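Good day; I would like, with your permission, to put a structural problem before you. What I wish to show you is a protein chain and, alongside it, a tokenised description of its three-dimensional fold. Here, with my thanks, is the record as I have it:
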Amino acid sequence: MIKQFNLKVFEEVLGICRLDSNAQVPEWAEGSFLSITRTSDELSIVCSQKHIPQHVKCEGSWRYFRIEGILDFSLIGVLSYLSGLLASQGISIFVISTYDTDYLLIKEQELDKAVAALRAEGHQITIAGG
């Protein structure tokens, strides 16, 4: 049912930040990966960790995988499958989906373990720049 995926791991280290729901998007919210989500409860920003000021509430040291190719909206169970595989190895994830694909954020200290788990299941992993 689930096919083998090609995933790309990026070198950039990300931070996941929480600001007040009425805060303006700050100038430091930048990098080659940027996700901004506003709800009635919070403004969440995921961006390059190197730009985040020390005083900002932030969970840092995240690396990210991109599922290569465009994922059709009709595909069912992709995130469930990949997150379940990683959860079975005790690896926590943070997921961001875009129109075209999904991104799995993994704590930097768990990256090697995640790559090994995904490769063991037949997924192809490419390291950006490598």
